[in-house]
Design goal:
The chain is α+β, with helices and mostly antiparallel strands. Helix 5 links the parallel strand 4 and strand 5. Helices cover 35% and strands 26% of the residues.
């Protein structure tokens, strides 16, 4: 059973490993602040996620090691007859398991989880420069049907 891939809600003790994975890529290196001690804003964000019943920070665990993370947010909409959507963000796998199908299992799990919450749609975004990630999501059936726009705010 210890060799089985498991998914569970993250715990505070996991935040360090999660931030390490988020920072371990070209974009993450420029926007995350992985150091010891970990900046308290990461713990505050974790606490906010944990206290929101429509937000889940999920870790993938293999042999007691955290090897992946994603955040899934469940959002009610007035459109689509009051339907619910799931938004997947912050997907990362540990560099030791990249290319081994872990990401596929994580997204497949998230889609099934969204179904249990009666979501009619799963959506996600990825940076346009992440061409491998775009191809990965397209291979899983995601389609670029909308143009997403973002406006950065200087709130920090």
């Amino acid at each position: 059973m210890k060799n089985e891939l498991l998914f569970r809600k993250a715990e505070e003790k996991d935040v360090d490993k999660i931030v390490k994975m988020l920072a371990n890529d070209p974009l993450g290196k420029t926007r995350e602040n992985y150091r010891h001690p970990l900046p308290n804003r990461y713990i505050k964000a974790f606490e906010a996620i944990q206290s929101d019943p429509n937000n889940e920070l999920i870790v993938a665990v293999l042999k007691e090691d955290i090897i992946g993370v994603l955040q899934i947010t469940f959002i009610p909409y007035i459109t689509h007859q009051g339907g619910w959507r799931a938004t997947i963000e912050g997907v990362r796998t540990d560099e030791s398991v990249r290319g081994k199908g872990i990401g596929t299992k994580m997204i497949t799990w998230a889609i099934e989880h969204a179904k249990t919450r009666n979501c009619h749609l799963v959506q996600l975004t990825t940076d346009k420069t992440r061409t491998d990630a775009l191809r990965f999501y397209e291979n899983l059936g995601f389609k670029a049907t909308h143009e997403g726009l973002k406006l950065k705010l200087n709130s920090r």
